[in-house]
Amino acid sequence: MASRKKVLLKVIILGESGVGKTSLMNQYVNKKFSNQYKATIGADFLTKEVLVDDRLVTMQIWDTAGQERFQSLGVAFYRGADCCVLVYDVNNAKSFETLESWRDEFLIQASPRGPENFPFVVIGNKIDMEESKRMMWDQTMTDLRARSDLDIYIYDGVIEISQKRAMAWCQSKGNIPYFETSAKEAINVEQAFQTIAKNALQQEVEVEIDFPDPIKIDSDTSKDFGCAC
Amino acid sequence: MHDAFKVYTVIEKLPHKIESIFAQGDKLYVGTLYGTLLVYSVREPLGQDEAISVTLMETLKTFSKKAIEQIDIIKAVGVLVTLSDGYVNLHDLESFALRTQLGETRGANLFSVFSKIEIQDGFPQVVTRLAVAVRRKVIVFSWQDSEFMSTKDFPVPDRVRTMEWVGTQNLCMGFDSEYALMDCRTSVLKTLFSPTSPSVQGALGSTLESTLNTLNTFSSLATGGLMGFGSKPGKPLITRLPNDEILLGKENSSISVGVDGMPKRKKGIEWSGMPEELGYSSPYAVAILSRHIEIRNIETRELVQSAEMPHARLLTQGKLLYIASTSEVWRLIPFSFPQQIDELVQKEEYQEAISLINQINPVLLDETVDTLGKIKTLYAHHLFRTHQYEKSLTLFSELDTPAAEVIGLYPAVISSHLPPKELEVVSPKPGNVDLNEANAKNTQPIIMSTKELEDAVECLIRFLADKRQKISKSLQTLQNNHDSFSYRHSNQEDEAEEYLQMLEIVDTALLKSYMMTHERLVGSLLRVNNHCNPDETESLLLKHKKYKELVDFYRGKQLHRKALELLKTIHANPGEMNGVLPTVNYLQRLGVDHLPLILEFGTWILELDPEVAMKIFIDDEPEIDTLPRYKIMAYLERLSLDLCVVYLEHVIHELGDKTSDFHNTLVVSYLAQIQRDSSTPDNEEDIIKTKAKLLQFLDESTSYKAERILSRLPVDSCYEERAILLSRIGQHDQALNIYVHKLNNFQAAEEYCIKNFNSNDPTKNVYLLLLKVYLRPPNREKPMLEPALDILTRHGTHIDPSAVMALLPASTRIDQLFKFFEKSIRESNKTKHMDMIVKNMLKAERLQTQEQLTFYRSRRVKITEDRMCPKCNKRIGNSVFAVFPDGVVVHYSCKETMAAMGHWRT
Predict the structure, then answer these.
(1) Which residues of chain B make contact with A93, given a CB cutoff of 8 A?
(2) What confidence tens digit (pLDDT) does each residue in B513-530 have?
(3) 3-state secondary structure of B437
(4) Interchain proximity A215–B157, CB inside 8 Å
(5) pLDDT at A13
(6) What pLDDT does residue A138 have?
(7) d(CA A187, CA A128)
(8) In contact, A122 and A96? CB cutoff 8 Å
(9) Average pLDDT along chain B
(10) Helix-, strand-, coil-residue percentages of chain A, each rounded to 5
(11) Which of A180, A205, B315, B485 is deepest in the core (most CB within 10 A)?
């Protein structure tokens, strides 16, 4: 019977303002990307049907406002979440530093049944920017090397540290799956959400919700009403 | 169960067989089998113990020839509607004289009246509908106010067994096998469901069923169609509820349906038997069962009251509830609602009480109106006591019950931090005995098993998480308001203080709850902005040895000293807080504002594990960059020479700091290290390493002050270093002296010259200086001719031969100088030839320039009287003019404009 039940997975995306939460959702669901920044107000969701392990499930992806923290959303909003996605911007160290408190806030607000095993997924977004920045930097380096009298610091190290750090952090929080994506270039977005759906489904299976049986009033309606005269 | 109604006997042992009853105001109309109409006046008792007073007002023996099957009133028209002998008759309500017999209703078995005030054309009008079921059709008569409007026929597929208006437009009908809803505007019939379960129908069999149907039709014709004893399964029953809702009988249950034919409530009412008649008297549904009557709350479906009424078979609808058997009539008068509610509260049937308050008109509630919240609170407490924690806390949450009251329900392990006064939960309200009693129960401690407590705590966590957010929000709103006013409200501050206290209670309870059920979340709570009570948190975490969380908590509360002291105390314990690393990590994130703390607590870790501990100064963290390097240098200098060196090396090499003080100190520190190491044996390797570093640094760095360091160099060693320093301040002769005389390293001296030679500055010719060092040694030593000649041989071209001659001792053999002279002469020859070439080339260039000059000088323009300036079209005349290289002549003042226009770009 369980497989016949319609499965709805509630996924919540959290992260600092401007890291690309809305863009990720839009890229995944609508395959669209816009360069313009528009702050999300409150929360918004999109749904998508996904095939996970041969099961068709509906993913309800909740995009939240990064700017206001949790102020505008009630505790009820976080209840019944099946997976929480923490997003940061690989080019913004601060957005990574705050991941921990986003996770803490979520756990407190959502009070999931098994906080130890609640599925999180971490996404480092905007790797396309990293690429372009790097290219820019490479150019600068070439220019600088031409003037050999200048001291040169190796820039590449900065980003690698943040990536290493992200992985170490995910490891320390119970092996949270980690993805580096670009909502703009659609890199790794599909893979990340596939994992999200899979992990959310596992959570869902563990907590089956029973709906009360609806009363049936028309099941025994006799169709004939005597003769038609 | 409680007593909703008090039962009074109105009529006893009536000699006539009662066939129908109807009540209106204080009048009770009774119709009998033999056509007699009895009208009674019924006065409700005023007090509890008073009896009901009943007076027979009229006895109309010959009202009808046949049984009066149904009675109703159309008030707007002033008529009494009766069904008798297959006709619907309208009698005058006062005189009971027959006004009209509705001829088209011949064969009628049933009618239904409905009146409603409707706004038509801006005026309120009473719209009355009378539906009469006649065999397989329904005739609808309409009135507006007292004026008869129309008649309309509607065919129906079967004989109507019962029907009821749903609003003025919809008629719900019950047939033997089906309920149907008809829209009288469109005549569309919508079937709903059958009053009988399929199993019963199946058991009867189709032929038998049709026979029975026919039989029943006959019998109902004979008995007047109201009902028969021992009615067959699934008799259709329809009762009108408020708000266009109807209650339909289906065997033992009653299902409520809206005007759209869809079920309105989640579940139907389940009666203990199959109802024979169904009624509604707000807010209760009433059913006559075979032996008794049942009264149920329509919302909660709970049995409210049941009463023995043998042979009861008729009932009236609405506020005036009468029930009749063939010879008796009872009146059911509701107790006042405050009374009912009190009784329910006393019996702890809070749900019923709440449902009752929700359903009845608030006007009926007088002083109990404001107790709904209180009853709900009592209900929540009751749920809690009966271990229904989830429901209880959801309700508390809905009610926004103060957190202290809820936390107070829990055992001390959760609630011990509450201030004592908070433990008296709901303050007893004087004068209200019932609530007081309920409160007495509340204050008793609740005994829970471990499992129950865990469940209860789980629910509490959700409640508290919700609460803390609500309070935070309120607090923030308050603070925002506060910001927008320039003056200060003292009461606003009090309010904020109150919120903060509540937050402390909530967060501390949440912490304890997490500690009990979800230890993992303790850290989360303490890391985010929280208001946990510091003392409670401290002792709790220490008790559970949750040091990491405690450190996080201290950090969040800016209690850095406490955190650091704790880290120091526990550093020897095994576990994740072992060693100096936790302290290192902590100090790394403190930043410049807490420098004294960093330095204070840095000491013990630097002493214990300098390599790891140094990370507080040299790691790649944003906060570390903000630390003042001077202070750290001074601190480390005092602490340990080696650490100071490590730090300075980091600052200079990694961070590229060019501050000369750092560079000076590093050099001095290197020297100190060398000195220290040379005083003890077995440090050869270290000394060599340090020396190499020092030399390399002296060589590479340009930021140190050589003069200052020179004075600190030991006199009898470090010649190499001294040489580098001397060269820095331009004392090349002294530097070379050291290489030659102290170190006897001629090669180094030569390299020094190669490095420092600057051909543009002949006054400081290092080669000449070196030569002098070799040939004019101090203290009348013997001149060193060999190395001098080597230098001359290799680098002689850089030295003026005449200066060399002056230096060389007279005894020098000329052949030894052969190479030097040869080179020198060749060099000067080379220079001479080169100069000649240059000279001739310059000459040629000069000639060319002269030729060009002649050419330009030979150019001329002729200014005639008529010559015009092409720019302003005026004569040039005697004014100053300019000539463009292409020969165009303009006024001098017009030159710029002309050029700007693009003529002959210059």
Answers:
(1) 622
(2) 888 888 878 888 888 888
(3) helix
(4) no
(5) 92
(6) 58
(7) 9
(8) no
(9) 80
(10) 40, 20, 40
(11) B315
Of A115, A226, A228, the CB nearest to B520: A115
Interface probe with A: pick from B178, B210, B469, most Cβ of A within 10 Å = B469
Q: Is B422 exposed, middle or buried (0-12, 13-18, 19+ CB in 10 A)?
A: middle
**What is the per-residue DSSP string for B127-178?**
EEEEEEEETTEEEEEEEETTEEEEEEEEE-SS--SEEEEETTTEEEEE-SS-
Helix (H, G, I), strand (E, B) or coil at B291: coil
Largest Cα separation within chain A, whole Å, is 109
Q: Do B193 and A217 touch (CB under 8 A)?
A: yes
In the beta sheet, which residues pair with residue A13?
A63, A85
Cβ of A100 and B527 within 8 Å? yes
Whether complex ipTM tops 0.85: no
Tell me, what's the pLDDT at A222? 42
Give the C-alpha separation, B401 to B373, whole Å.
10
Q: Which residue has the tokens 């509906």?
A: A58
Looking at beta carbons, which residues of chain A come within 8 Å of B468?
A: 108
- Where residue B234 falls (left for φ over 0; alpha for ψ -120 to 50; beta otherwise) is left
* B490-517 helix and B519-527 helix, angle to the nearest 10 degrees: 150
Q: What does the alpha-carbon distance between residue B308 and residue B112 come to, in Å, rounded to a whole number?
A: 29
Kind plus residue range of the DSSP H or E element containing B50: none
Give the angle B741-B742-B747 at the CA atoms, nearest 5°: 70
Residue B821: burial class (beta carbons within 10 Å; 0-12, 13-18, 19+): middle
State the DSSP code for B782. P
What's the burial of A206, exposed, middle or buried (CB within 10 Å: 0-12/13-18/19+)? exposed
Task: Provide the residue type at B849 as one letter.
Answer: T
**CA atoms B218, B224, B229, B230: torsion sign:** positive
B528: nearest CB among A108, A111, A115: A108
Secondary structure of residue B41 in the 3-state scheme: strand
Nearest to B654 by CA among B619, B606, B611, B605: B619
| Chain B residues in contact with A215 (beta carbon < 8 A) | 255, 263, 266-268
Look up residue B621 and give its amino acid: E
The pTM assigned to this predicted structure is 0.63
Average pLDDT for B805-829: 80
User: Is-contact B30 B60, C-beta < 8 A?
Assistant: no
Whether the CB-CB separation of B661 and B674 falls below 8 Å is answered with no
How many angstroms separate the CA atoms of B646 and B642, rounded?
6
State the Cα–Cα distance between residues B323 and B329, nearest whole angstrom.
6
Q: What are the φ and ψ backbone dihedral angles of A73, each rounded to 5 degrees?
A: -110, 130
pLDDT band at B364, cuts 50/70/90?
Answer: low
The token duo for B890 is 């303009």
- Work out whether strand A8-15 and strand A83-89 pair parallel, antiparallel, or are unpaired: parallel
Distance from CA of A124 to the nearest CA of B (A): 20
Alpha helices in B408-559 (DSSP H): 412-415, 433-442, 450-484, 490-517, 519-527, 534-543, 547-556
What residues of chain A lie within 8 A of the CB of B524, using their CB? 103-105, 107-108, 115
Using CA atoms, how far apart are residues A21 and A89, in angstroms rounded to an integer?
10
In B194-213, the residues whose Cβ lies within 8 Å of chain A are 194, 197-198, 201
CB contact under 8 A, A220 and B193: yes
Give whole-number Cα distances, B611 to A120, B118, B121, in Å: 36, 92, 95
Contact indicator for A56, A6 with CB cutoff of 8 Å:
no
Q: Which amino acid is at B698?
A: L
CB B174 within 8 A of CB B238: yes
**Which residue in B has a C-alpha nearest to residue A151's C-alpha?**
B656
Residues of A within 8 A of B588 (CB-CB) are none
